[in-house]
Amino acid sequence: MINIYYYFASKNNFDGETLKPRIPTNKMKCEDDIIKRICVSQSINGCLTAVGLFNIGDIIYIHKCNSNNAMQPSTEQVGDACFTGEQWILESVRMELFITVTIIGMIAADINNTENIMYSFKLIEK
69: buried, middle or exposed (CB in 10 Å: 19+, 13-18, 0-12)? Predict the structure, then answer.
């Protein structure tokens, strides 16, 4: 079985930690509130946009993880999933720090009557 890599963005560094599925505290009002999950994307831009709570100057930790137990939510479950590529991992997964970035710009976009923020970022050298 091939493991698929996903990206997870956070203001916290979860390197080496195992995250458990849960209902996100920062979900959209109409977003699913029953399925416990870890929200990820197969792109860095997608995972930044899916979180959508960053400001210019924020330092963001981009983690990678792999799982064979992910699902693609419908647009009824996540209105902007077609834009962010958000997927849900339904099992506990170990996070590995991939890169650290700082947010340097923001662009507003309206997708499915939901405002999304796309981010430009700069890699922070180790």
Answer: exposed
